[in-house]
């Protein structure tokens, strides 16, 4: 099976990033269209119904290995580093030109997922369009239905940042001092299986906070102060070692970015997610609304 790339080894995470390093607004994007690599992270069916002009499409599966079936070790994990460099280069990402990614209100946080991947690979010149396609359309932004074929470029990845991702074994080895955050829906947390999970439930001791609570009704991210209030109310503190998970890493990646943005700089994503945890019969799962 492919190896995870990269996986945290316990090193110190990167310092908190300013909000402007992670987010751009509609006006900024209008002024810079043509100067950035624009990636639409939604499903292809939605992309073909309408997207921001110039955007290329990359669904979450574009970046992952789907060998085997859900629950197998490595299923849904990031591609090996050399293969990932080719996939990113095929989107037009050269490591120099800024990248802007977007998704949509009601989605899975695919924009955060792609940005998390780029950060994990050591690429820092990438940001999210706050509010995504929903906000773009609401502000009068133009759309296009013609699919964009990206111009492939050569990409040499810099040194990876291994502070963003953790493996199943890493969690097991560090369980005694971790705060584990489950950002799936309430039914999933309590035991519902919507995505071929081998077992239903959650990692024992996990705190539940659905990731869609991190945005307002328009799909735009809450302020840093509001995010801190939400995370504090859930029982998290800035000094905590936090592992975030969902089913296969996408929602977890988004929430990890937002934790870092709000000052919880020791947050990491469990890319393999509950799919792999539930697929390992040696690991305990809990059901119901309690921890």
**Secondary-structure-derived class:** alpha/beta
pLDDT average, as an integer?
90
Number of helices: 10
Assembly state (oligomeric): single chain
Strand content: 5-15%
Percent of residues in helical segments?
25-40%
What labels describe this entry?
10 strands, five-stranded parallel sheet, alpha/beta, 291 residues
Task: Give the helices and strands, then pairings.
Layout (H helix, E strand, L loop, with lengths): L22 E2 L1 H7 L4 E4 L3 H6 L6 E2 L23 H10 L8 E4 L7 H11 L5 E4 L2 H7 L26 E2 L1 H7 L3 E5 L3 H5 L16 E2 L15 H10 L7 E5 L4 H12 L5 E4 L2 H7 L12
In short:
The chain is of the alpha/beta class.
General description of the model:
With about 290 residues, the protein is an alpha/beta fold. It contains ten helices and ten strands. A five-stranded parallel beta sheet has the order 1-5-4-2-3. It has a five-stranded parallel beta sheet with strand order 6-10-9-7-8. Helix 4 packs across helix 9 (about 250-260). The radius of gyration is 18 Å and the shape is globular. The two termini are about 30 Å apart. Residues about 1-10 have low confidence and may be disordered.
């Amino acid at each position: 099976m492919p190896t995870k790339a990269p996986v945290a080894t316990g090193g110190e995470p990167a310092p908190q990033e300013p909000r402007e390093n992670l987010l751009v607004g509609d006006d900024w994007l209008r002024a810079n269209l043509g100067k950035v690599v624009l990636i639409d992270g939604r499903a292809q069916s939605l992309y073909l119904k309408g997207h921001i002009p110039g955007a290329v499409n990359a669904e979450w599966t574009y970046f992952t290995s789907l060998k085997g079936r859900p629950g197998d070790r490595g299923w849904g994990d990031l591609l090996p580093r050399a293969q990932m460099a080719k996939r990113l280069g095929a989107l037009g990402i050269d490591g120099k030109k800024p990248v802007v990614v977007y998704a949509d209100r009601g989605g899975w946080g695919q924009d955060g997922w792609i940005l998390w991947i780029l950060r994990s690979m050591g690429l820092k010149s990438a940001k999210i369009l706050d509010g995504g396609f929903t906000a773009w359309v609401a502000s009068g932004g133009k759309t296009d239905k013609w699919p964009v074929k990206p111009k492939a470029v050569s990409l040499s990845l810099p040194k990876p940042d291994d502070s963003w991702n953790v493996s199943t074994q890493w969690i097991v080895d560090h369980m005694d001092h971790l705060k584990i955050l489950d950002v799936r829906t309430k039914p999933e947390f309590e035991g519902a299986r919507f995505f071929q999970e081998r077992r239903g439930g959650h990692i024992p001791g996990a705190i539940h906070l659905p990731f869609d609570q991190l945005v307002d009704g328009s799909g735009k991210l809450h302020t840093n102060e509001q995010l801190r209030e939400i995370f504090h109310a859930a029982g998290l503190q800035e000094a905590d070692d936090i592992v975030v998970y969902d089913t296969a890493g996408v929602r977890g990646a988004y929430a990890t970015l937002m934790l870092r943005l709000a000052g919880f700089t020791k947050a990491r994503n469990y890319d393999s997610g509950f799919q792999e945890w539930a697929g390992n019969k040696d690991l305990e799962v809990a059901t119901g609304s309690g921890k």
